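Morning, I've got a small favour to ask if you have a moment. It would help a lot if you went through both lines with me. I owe you a coffee for this, so here goes:
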Amino acid sequence: MLTDNRNRKDQRDFYRCGVEIPFFFSIIKGKEIIGPYPAHTINISGGGMFFATTCPLLQADDLILAEFSEAADTKNCFYASLSGDFMGRVIRSTSAEDETDNPESPIVEKKYQLAVEFKFLHKATRNDIVAYLNQYETFLRKLQK
């Protein structure tokens, strides 16, 4: 299992890997499920993820269901995939305004960044996430050579 013991003051049990993975999430409010909404990871680990979205509805302690599809990272020619549904609890939320790709455009989009800890994951599912991240980092190391 991939862990990062260098920075124990964070109390993280898993190493976080900076990788952008598109996914959809739904918000679980009691018996109601709201969504899906698009998002992308900023970093991810076996214990949780930090992600960005334009959905303004999430707050601390909200439960989400993140849905990753089997899509390869074709931009980097990385062919491993992360797929499945992962339940998580929002532990932190921040927002910032973001200009579109065109700096002359008057459109300003509000982006939200959220930290989520995974909940109710089977050990095998957690191991699948860690294995995916190990493969991704191996791929990146090969690119750097």
